[in-house]
Amino acid sequence: MPEAGWLATRWARLDGPERIAGIDLARGLAVLGMFAAHLLALPEVDLADPATWIGVADGRSSILFATIAGVSIGLLSGGARPARGAQLRVVRIRLVARAIFLWLLGVLLVVTGVPVYVILQAYAFLFVLSILLVPLSARVLLSLAAALALVMPFVQVWLDELPFWATAAGEEVAAALGWHYPFVTWIAFIAAGMGFARLGIRRGAVQVWMLVAGAALAAIGYGLDAVSGTDAASENLSYWNQLWTARAHSTGLLEVIGSGGFAIAVVGACLLLCRTVLRYPAVPLRAVGAMPLTAYTAQIVAWAIVAAAVLGDTGNLWGFRALEPFAPFAICTIVGCTAWALLVGRGPLEWVMDRFSRVLSTPVGPGR
């Protein structure tokens, strides 16, 4: 039957050997975590109070997203064997093309007036910077990631305090750069993800190592933050207080270590989970993770449409949150992505970005 063949083909795309189920699952969790950060007023996490655990989505979801982006870049550029020669040139052109696409889409989403910090512009710059990392080995990438994670927060605190950001021009530049997710520090997460891809992320030993090492880093980062006693109110009192914090979106040293470790551990856990029969109940989340750009963009566009129709203002954050949109947005995204993946295939924006990058990277010459 043609229908059976079509469905089998779609299923093979979602669950075949070309896809890594655990990466899709981790990416799906990151997408829904960013939905929660946008649509809910998240509490501070208190391990003794399960009602606050949803607060884990704040800040950590976007860092998880960035780390997985590094894994994807590593896989795109050859996996365990970095691209060389003509293949390396093609990979670099495709990364630039994807960066252009992401930046333009990010700017369009900013224009909607929806009051969120759009991450796509930052991703665009991270993709461009990753071009320099593509030829590097796993050892070099992971060493570089560690060095950047330890050094760049010192620079980041100084950069964030520049008076320029408080000006009208500074606000425009920050939006264009996606500075809420500063690429000069976040390149550490990209390098880490690429490093794990180079190690051979399909290997069980690598996945266990990610879970253990990531959990250890998270314990160090959050543990040091807990004993330091620094809170958000005291951060502005000194350079050191701004640096020595794990507060979400602070880009402080302890956030980079703690949340970076958390992201690595989550990816490792998802990869290990999807080595079991649990990969099948996770299919809906994996479908979201297979088309993250579509899901992320659809959320902001839907937000703009609903807010304009109901509130008459796309920028009314608290008014929109009062509508309690998280559950319907999350459910519609999960159902919609699952149906699309099983009935159509690749996410629409993922398809367009891939075609755009392939067109720009195809040589043009005699005979073409």
From TrEMBL:
Signal peptide, first to last residue: none
Parts forming coiled coils: none
Location of the Heparan-alpha-glucosaminide N-acetyltransferase catalytic domain: 19-205
Transmembrane segments: 20-42, 62-83, 95-111, 117-134, 141-159, 179-197, 204-224, 256-278, 290-311, 326-345
Entry annotated with the keyword Membrane: yes
Keywords: Membrane, Transmembrane, Transmembrane helix
InterPro entries for the chain: HGSNAT_cat (IPR012429)
Pfam families registered for this protein in UniProt: HGSNAT_cat
Record keyword Transmembrane helix present: yes
Record-given protein name: DUF1624 domain-containing protein
